[in-house]
Amino acid sequence: MILDLHLHSELSDDSRAPVEAYLKLLQRKRAERPLDGIVLTEHRQFDPARDYRALEDRYGFRILTAAEVETDYGHVLVYGVNADIFARFDFSNVRLPAQELITEVARLGGIALPCHPGRPTVGLSAHYATKPPLEGVVAVEALNGGSRRGEDDRVQELIRRHGYHAFGGSDSHLVSFVGVCATEFDAEIRSTDDLVRELKGGRYRPVDFRARRVA
Amino acid sequence: MPFDVDPQLLGREFDRTEYGPVTADELIAYARAVGATHPCYLEPGPDLVAHPTFCVRYKSRKFYPDDLPTQIDFRRGFDAGKDIELGVPVRPGDTIHVSSAVHELYEKTGRSGAMAFIVIRFTMTNQRGETVALIDNRFLHKLGGGS
Amino acid sequence: MTRFDDVFEGDELPGREFLLEKDQVRDYARAAHQWAPRFTDDEGARREGLPGMITPGNMSMGLLATMLEAWAGPGSLRRLGTTFRGLLLPGRTIRLCGAVTQRHDETRSVEVDVWIENDEGERVVAGTATLRLR
Fold first, then answer.
1. pLDDT band of A212, cuts 50, 70, 90
2. Domain for residue A213, yes or no?
3. CATH T-level assignment (fold) for domain C4-21+55-132
4. Looking at residue A186, which CATH number applies to its domain?
């Protein structure tokens, strides 16, 4: 099963992409980007009331929700946000303590994974240059659709050194770039609980659809 | 340290500036510089109008109000982008009025570290009171230096 | 001039690829009252810590607007929003791109993703536009 684990809808401050428009594009581009679903990771917020089941039924894609938060070790994707996690952390805080976030989110039933780790300032690589490595990191985003030249290369060294699993996401803020990078899971994922379990288990890999263009 | 934003700051006009009258030469020079080819942007005459992004050349005389949080270092920052909503076209002879207000202000982190994200909204009207453009100017400034 | 009935979600705009000349950037800086070393002179820009002369973000919007209206017709552009993700250096080839993402029948308007790629294929400007078509 292939999911885009990192993208932003119009709920994020720097995106104007409606969720439905994302799904329509994925339908049109099935041959180039054979995704089964998306995980919406809005910036610094999480709304548990969001319900995309009608869109799932209409378009046949899995839609899950998560969040991208900002910490003292860069940006982190939080999957499996539940009431306990949401009560424990203020997602609008741009200085969340990363170690505490990773540890507590895991304890409370979710999983927090650093994203775009090769990016200056907001990526893990930059912080590991001057700070001790975080404990409990299971995986990092090895492929990010918004990365610039060289950023994803830095991640490979990080993965080798620390033994992290690798996943991929588009980091799309525009409809056109949904699914350009994604994650292929061995197992089927029907729910957020499934997603958290599989992310912890490591049976997945990043996939890159950026070069594909089907005539 | 995160900064506090006075809610009264948001939406309050802090500057009002007037420009013009707009000349045909200004409209044509701008249109040429952005590669426009349609005669309505390039040929003097009654049908000449401004290229749709012409209004970005106007700004408030005072770029920010005096009472922004002091943690924001205005000497260090960059233009993060713009949103332009277009109204009636600008024509030669128009006077353009620019009213400025802080539309949004919050903290975020990016490639350049912890930054203050500020949106200054320009409401631009002509001499007839018609809206010619609404422009949201987005800036990112470093935190910590104060102004 | 493109008609609403002939446009579909997913359509890619013709786009433009061209060498962005430094003189064109200087012409823009003059016409837009943005005459400053960073936009007009490589050495002056380097003194500000930049790699060389850069293109004003406003100019990138102007170029995108021109591309959009070349496709849809003058007066069709109703909204354009862009994020400046990186420096656009003149003296290099750039690509202006766009793709239709939504159609709104009630207003005969379309939403279009737009972006500018530098000569390394990186998206340095990205955003969306709303155009009202005939």
1. low
2. no
3. Thiol Ester Dehydrase; Chain A (3.10.129)
4. 3.20.20.140
Q: What is the ipTM score, two decimals? A: 0.96
User: For residues A205 and A40, what is the distance between their CA atoms, to the nearest angstrom?
Assistant: 19
Residues of chain B positioned with their CB less than 8 A from the CB of A119: 111
The residue length of chain C stands at: 134
Residue of A nearest to B104 (CA): A13
Q: How many domains does chain A have?
A: 1
Strands across the sheet containing C92-104: B13-19, B96-110, B113-125, B131-143, B72-86, C77-84, C123-132, C109-117, C92-104, C16-20
Q: Give me the pLDDT at residue B147, please.
A: 38
**CB distance B111–A43 less than 8 Å?**
no
Which of 128-147 (B) contact C at CB < 8 A? 136, 138
Q: Which residues on chain C are in Cβ contact (under 8 Å) with A22?
A: none
Q: What is the pTM of this model?
A: 0.94
The pLDDT of B101-124, averaged and rounded, is 88
User: Interface partners of B (3+ CB pairs, < 8 Å)?
Assistant: A, C
**Residue A189: which domain range?**
2-208
C69 touches chain A (CB under 8 A): no
Residue A210, chain C, CB below 8 Å: the answer is: no
User: What tens digit of pLDDT does each residue of A80-97 get?
Assistant: 999 999 999 999 999 999
Phi then psi dihedrals of residue B38, to 5 deg = -70, 135
Domains, chain B, with CATH or none: 7-22+60-143 (3.10.129.10)
* DSSP 8-state symbol, C5: G
- Residue B2's pLDDT is what? 60
